[in-house]
Amino acid sequence: MPGSNINLAVVGATGAVGNQMIGCLAERNFPLQSLKLLASARSAGRILRFKGDSVPVEELTENSFQGVHIAVFSAGAGTSKTFAPIAVKAGCVVVDNSSAWRMDPEVPLVVPEVNSHAIAGYKKKGIIANPNCSTIQLVVPISAIHKEVGVKRIVVSTYQAVSGTGKKAIDELLDQTRSIINFLDYKIKVYPHRIAFNCLPHIDVFLDNGYTKEEMKMVNETRKILEAPSIGVTATTVRVPVFFGHSESVNIETHEHITAEKVKTLLEGTPGVKLVDDPQKSIYPLATDAAGQDLILVGRIREDESIPNGINMWIVADNIRKGAATNAIQIAEVLEKEYL
């Protein structure tokens, strides 16, 4: 029923991403008939605002999804594994922001600007997965180049904001910074080392191959979204003392030669991308500029002089918005318009 109003639930509504999902629904005027906000028992009863109205947070239970058309989850993999099948059984389509379902072959992994056609695959399991934040901002510009000349290999190093870890990490960076500039002792709780005035080449747990789980997410998710299992992808992910906005240094090797100018022209016409590339005037993507908006900023585009078919670029996006909340709501919009 395209154009019909939707009963939608946000699971994990009181978290940073869940809260931004609520904001995105309002900003984008999603056609809601009703909005249900769900969270753990300790958050039940809190009041959140939506378009000027007060909406109470309800406890997430097995009976939460009756009459709900779409449930957007941002409450962690454990919660998603438990409650997503329950929601599907109640007649819901689940859009899940956790890592729980991303690599399930029966669950589409979607960035709407890249592979919205894959959303149709939700019918197999009733679930659509939202990719990792660092993957989302990578694949949108890469996809445009891949369609033009074919991408053979991707080397990416990320510089990821603490908001990707959550509110406790934001507070820790703020508290450590205050302590250090005032010559006071600081506490280390969230990360294994001090994050203030530091860079940690460690996001998520280390695996037997020496990579972190975050790095392997980027490898596997990129291949799945681009529907290109043969693309070589290698990643190094780094946590940096920035509050909002992930940055990425990206080197790609293409099958056919493409100039930097041609890449710029391609990206200027790519939905969701903003070209920010005039380095002679110190104009290039910055985390401070990306924060608070949904566009993926791309710049420092130049040919890699060490190989025949190489391109370097710098990609920045708001990890809470396009890297999580906005992408999920964009998926819900396609569902509402084309499938429900």
Shape: globular
- Classify the fold: give the CATH topology of the largest domain: Dihydrodipicolinate Reductase, domain 2
The CATH architecture of the largest domain? 2-Layer Sandwich
Strand segment count: 13
End-to-end distance, in Å?
5 Å
Task: Please provide a written account of the structure.
It is a single chain. The chain is an alpha/beta fold and 340 residues long. It has 2 domains: 6-130 and 324-338, NAD(P)-binding Rossmann-like Domain (Rossmann fold, 3-Layer(aba) Sandwich); 134-319, Dihydrodipicolinate Reductase, domain 2 (2-Layer Sandwich). The protein has helices at residues 16-27, 77-89, 112-115, 133-149, 167-181, 213-226, 260-268, 287-290, 321-338, and strands at residues 6-11, 32-39, 47-50, 53-59, 70-73, 93-96, 127-129, 151-160, 232-239, 246-254, 273-275, 296-303, 310-317. A 7-stranded mixed β-sheet has the order 3-4-2-1-5-6-7, sandwiched between helices. The chain has a 6-stranded mixed β-sheet with strand order 9-8-10-13-12-11.
